Amino acid sequence: MSDWIDKSVEKQHSELERCINNARTQRDLGIQKKIADVVICAECLEPIPKARLAIKPDATHCVECLAEMEAP
């Protein structure tokens, strides 16, 4: 019985790893993430404010996360 449980957990782990790698690739390539036409910050996963997108339509990060990334 534990054999199928182990396989199920292993499959779930592989799928999670694939999703994480996909998200990292999208972030590294500068691809915007959208959920229901709302652009999501690649770091904090919060919606990027419309004011920011008006200034930089291809933004992948909110101002706060971008500032943290650029801080020394």
From TrEMBL:
The organism's taxonomic lineage, starting at the top: Bacteria, Pseudomonadati, Pseudomonadota, Gammaproteobacteria, Vibrionales
A Pfam family of this chain: zf-dskA_traR
SUPFAM superfamilies: Glucocorticoid receptor-like (DNA-binding domain) (SSF57716)
Protein name: TraR/DksA family transcriptional regulator
Species of origin: Vibrio parahaemolyticus
Domain Zinc finger DksA/TraR C4-type: 40-70
Example of a GO MF term: zinc ion binding
InterPro entries (UniProt xref): Znf_DskA_TraR
Keyword Zinc listed: yes
Keywords noted in UniProt: Metal-binding, Zinc, Zinc-finger
Tagged with keyword Metal-binding: yes
Zinc finger boundaries on the chain: dksA C4-type: 41-65
